[in-house]
Amino acid sequence: MEGLLNDIAFIIGTTLMYSTPLIFPAIGGVITERSGIINIGLEGMMYFGAFVGAAVAYFTQDPWLGFLCAGLAGASLGLLHAIATVSFSAEQIVSGIAINFLGVGLALFISRLVFDGATQTLTVPNKIPLPLDFLFGDGRLFPSAGFMDLVFNRFATVYIAFALVLVSWFVLYRTRLGMRLRAVGEHPEAADSLGISVFKIRYGAVITSGFLAGLGGAAMSIAVVSRFNNTLISGHGFIALAAMIFGKWKPQGALLACLIFGGAKGLEIFMGAKGVPIPSSLLATLPYILTIVILIGWVGRSQPPAAIGKIFDKGED
Amino acid sequence: MNGPASSLREKFLHGSLAITLMSILFGFLLGGVILLVAGFNPLEAYWVIVEGVFSRPKYISYVIIYSTPLIITGLSVAFALRTGLFNIGAEGQYIMGALTAAAAGYYLKLPILLHVTAAVGLAVLVAGLWGGLAGWFKARFGVNEVISTIMLNWTALYISNWAITIPSFGRQGTGKTYEIQPSAQIDILGEWKRTPEGIAFLREHPMLWDILKSPVNLGFICALILAFAVWYTLNRTTLGYELRAVGYNPHAAEAGGIDVKRSIVVSMLISGALAGAAGAFQVLGVSHRIATLAIMEGYGFDGIAVSLIGNNSGPGCVFAGLLFGGLKYGGSKIQDVMGAPTEVINIMIGIIIFFVAMPKLIRLILNFRERRRRT
Fold it and tell me: The complex's ipTM?
C-alpha cells in the first residue's frame, strides 16, 4: 500500500516538475494573445532565457539573479516582437519565427564566446532552492521520500508557477487592466475610442509574455536540470503554445493542458524506472496523440480572441 | 509616375523583391555589427564564408547538397501558406518521409529505377497523409493546424525513433538503421567513383574528382523540378487558383463555389508530400539511413524561413534555399578559421526574417531615401 502511494506521489511530483517550465510560457502566451498579438516566438524566448539564466547563475552563483535575468532576456526579445508587431504592423507569425531564430542564435553565439566555444554552460553551483527544505530544514517538515515529501517538496519555481496562474487569472478577469487587455484583444477600435491605449497595452502584454517565457527557460535550466545545453529547450515553447490554445486562451485552461503534458512525462519516467515493457518511444507519443484526440472530441472549435493577428492601425499616418 | 517604365521601377523599388533584398542587406549589416561587438572582423568573416562557398567546386556542390532539403521543405511551407495554412508540421512530415524512404530502400527488392520510384512514392504518400491528417483535423473538427502539426511533429519523431529499435531494421546499439540498398540510392556516379577505373579516371580530372568528393545526388535536380511544379500548380491550374482563393479570403472563396474544406485537406496533403520528398531525397541521396533523433533536426523549421525569405513562391524558395544553405555551409567555417561562433548565421537569418515581416518599416526607409534624393 505504501509502495503504491509512493508511486502515485512520485508521478504527481514529476508531473509538477515537468509542467512548470511549460506553465510560464503558456501563461505568457495567454496574456499576449488575449491582447491580440500572436507570439509564436515563445520557443526562442525560452531558449534564450534558459541560457541566460544558467550563465548568470553560474557566474554569480545566485540562482535567483539568474532567474530574473532569464526573464529579462526573454523580455528583450519580447520587446523586439512588440516593436515589429505593434509599431510596424508586422506579420505576427513571421516576426515570431524570426524571434525563434534570434533566440537560438543569440544563446549559442554568446555561449560559445563565454564558455570557451561550447554550446552549453557549466553546471551551476546553486539551483533554485526547495522552499520547504529552506524554511524547515532538510526533511524536517515531511519525512524524506514519503508521500508528502515527494509531492510537495519541489523547487520554488513550481510554487511560483501556480501562483502565477492565480495572479494572471485575477488580473485578467478581476481588474481594470485585465478588462482593458481583453477589450484590446477583442475589439481594439472600440477600446481605442474609449481612450484605452492599444499601443501601451499590447507592448506591455508582449514584453510580459517574453519575460514569462524566459522564466520558463530558467525553470528548466536552473531547476529541473542544472545547466543549459543546446538540446535542453527543444520544442517546449511550441508545446506551451499548444497548451495555451488547448486551454482556450485561459490561464486555468492552459494550466490544465500543461499538467497533462507534464503528467505524460511523469508517467513515462515512472514506467521507464519500473521497467514496464512498453517501448519508451511509443509511450512518449502519448501526450501528443492525447492532445489531438481531446481537441477533436472534447474541445472542438476553440475561439481565439476576435482581433488576434489583425493589424491595428490608428490611421494617423 | 504613370508610365510603364516608372511602374517597373516602382515595382523594383517598392515591391516584394526590394523588401526581400533590403532585408537580406540588413541581415548582413546587423550580423556584421554583432560580430564586431563580439570582437571579430565582420569583413574577414564574410570573406571566409564567401571563400568557403565559392573557392572550390567541392564547396559549391556541398552548398547545393545542403540547400536541397531546405528548398523542398520551403516549397512545402510555401504551398500551405498560399492556402492560408501555416504548416509548422513540415518537420514531422519530413521525418515520416525519411523513415518511409529508409524502410523502403532497405526492405524492398526491386530493380534500380523502380526501387527509387517506389521509395520516393511511398515516402511522399505517407508524408502526404501525415500532412493531410492535420488538414482533415482542421476541415472536419476545426482543430487549429498550428497545434495539430506541432503534436504530429513529436509523434513522428518518436515513431521514427521507435522504428529504429526494430531489430531487423536498426543496427543494434548504434541508434542507426542499416544502409539502404544501392538500387535505391540516387547518388550521381556513387558506386563508380569508388571503383579502380573510376579513381583512375578521376585522378586525371581533378575538378570532377573534387566535386564527387561530396555526396552529389539527384536531389537538387528534383528540387528544381518541384519548384517549377509548385509554381505551375499555384499559378497556372484551376486547383492552384482555388487554393490561393481560399488563402486570400475563405469566405469569398466559399461564396464563389469553392469547397473550402476540401481545399484545406488537399493543400495540406500536397504540402506534406513535398516535405516527405525532402526527407526521401536526403535519405536516398545523402545519409542512406536514418538515425535516432534526440531533438528535431530543423529541416521543417528552416523551411519556414526559406519560404518566408522566398516570398512563398517556387523560384523564391530556390534562391532562399541556396542562400540559407550557403550561409549554413560557409558559416560553419568561420568557427574553425577565426573562432567566431557559427551561430551568427542563425542570428542573421532571424534578422532577415524579422525585416521581411515588416514591409512597412522597409518602405519607410526606402521612401525616406528617395525623398532625400529629391530634395
Answer: 0.91
